[in-house]
């Protein structure tokens, strides 16, 4: 028995399949706000220079203001990006890991035409000390390009749990190449255990009282394992569901919140009706996991179930980006009508 059963009408009108440019723009704006898109720490790296040089910084925690402070002093002997002009325009960027989306990035100003930039800037994070101690600081140096084609110049990662907080002095640290996990795109956020089923219109026979007049997609969110632990007590998580391109209230569903558990069991079933078989090629089920807090919810990871073609009803969309595992899961459902298809899919940054 599922904890919650929800049924939502999901009608694809003809005009949806050939939307006007105006409605397309509106849809894309709302999709962007829903999907909790998170850029990778290493997104936008267009350079191929080797990491070299050093960075001078100090760390401190202001107990009174509950503020983590990264004092970025300067860099020396950075790599040259534009060899013809003999220049680099470097800046420093920081994230708190594992969840770079939660705390966001901080960055210094850009210093032009130098491989020995001097910053003397403080990057600040409002965060409780006990939460900070389960994080890692990722500090990286980048060349700023006017067209956004920024180049990675080196990084250092600091385990804040083992940091000597009595050390408030500025110290030099060698910049290193990016870690193998970053190069390979490894970003473990947990795994979702779920089942899905497609019931075609009229497929259950006239004698069946539950025979749907239109097709139905059933989504059974069972549990999630190994979520990011944002607090020592765990996380208070819930799952949101949309069937894209529809981001209206009719499409939106969510589970209850499971408190203080990085392995939450939801056992929540959602039924979307109004599905015709041809709609399965153009729709995408987006399931995202969030940490619930009073002021704002924090994105933990998600999956998108669809064919991953990049197109929806002939329009190019960024959310039709299912991985090979997600595509295979969706295709298996399409080829096995009226059967539950079980899967264990890794959560990712959408």
Automatic annotation (TrEMBL):
Xref: Pfam families: C2
InterPro entries listed in its UniProt record: C2_dom (IPR000008), C2_domain_sf (IPR035892), SYTL1-5_C2B (IPR043567)
A cellular component term, taken from the record's GO annotations: exocytic vesicle
Domain called C2: residue spans: 51-173, 188-320
Keywords, ordered alphabetically: Cell membrane, Exocytosis, Membrane, Repeat
Subcellular location per the Swiss-Prot or TrEMBL entry: Cell membrane
Protein biosynthesis in keyword set: no
A GO molecular function held by the record: neurexin family protein binding
Gene Ontology BP annotations: exocytosis
Protein name: Synaptotagmin-like protein 2
Organism field: Mesembrinibis cayennensis
């Amino acid at each position: 028995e599922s904890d919650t059963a929800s049924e939502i009408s999901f009608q694809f009108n003809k005009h949806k399949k050939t939307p006007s440019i105006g409605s397309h723009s509106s849809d894309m704006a709302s999709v962007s706000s829903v999907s909790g898109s998170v850029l990778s720490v290493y997104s936008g790296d267009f350079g191929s220079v080797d990491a070299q040089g050093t960075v001078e910084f100090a760390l401190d925690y202001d107990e009174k203001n509950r503020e983590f402070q990264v004092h970025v002093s300067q860099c020396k002997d950075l790599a040259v990006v534009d060899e013809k002009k003999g220049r680099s325009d470097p800046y420093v960027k920081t994230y708190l890991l594992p969840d770079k989306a939660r705390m966001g990035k901080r960055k210094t100003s850009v210093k032009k035409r130098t491989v020995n930039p001097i910053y003397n800037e403080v990057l600040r994070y409002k965060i409780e000390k006990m939460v900070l101690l389960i994080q890692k600081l990722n500090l990286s140096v980048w060349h700023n390009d006017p067209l956004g084609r920024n180049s990675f110049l080196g990084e250092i990662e600091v385990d804040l749990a083992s940091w000597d907080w009595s050390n408030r002095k500025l110290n030099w640290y060698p910049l290193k190449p990016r870690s193998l996990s970053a190069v390979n795109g490894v970003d473990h956020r947990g795994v979702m255990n779920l089942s899905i089923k497609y019931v075609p219109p009229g497929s259950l026979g006239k004698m069946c009282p539950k025979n749907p007049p239109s097709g139905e997609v059933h989504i059974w969110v069972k549990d999630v394992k190994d979520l990011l632990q944002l607090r020592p007590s765990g996380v208070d998580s819930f799952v949101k569901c949309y069937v894209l391109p529809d981001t209206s209230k009719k499409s939106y569903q969510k589970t209850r919140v499971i408190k203080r558990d990085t392995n939450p069991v939801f056992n929540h079933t959602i039924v979307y009706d109004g599905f015709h078989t041809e709609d399965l090629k153009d729709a995408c089920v987006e399931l995202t996991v969030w940490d619930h807090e009073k002021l704002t919810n924090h994105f933990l990871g998600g999956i998108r179930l669809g064919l991953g073609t990049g197109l929806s009803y002939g329009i190019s969309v960024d959310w039709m980006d299912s991985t090979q595992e997600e595509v295979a899961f969706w295709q298996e459902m399409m080829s096995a009508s009226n059967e539950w298809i079980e899967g264990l899919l890794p959560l990712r940054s959408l």
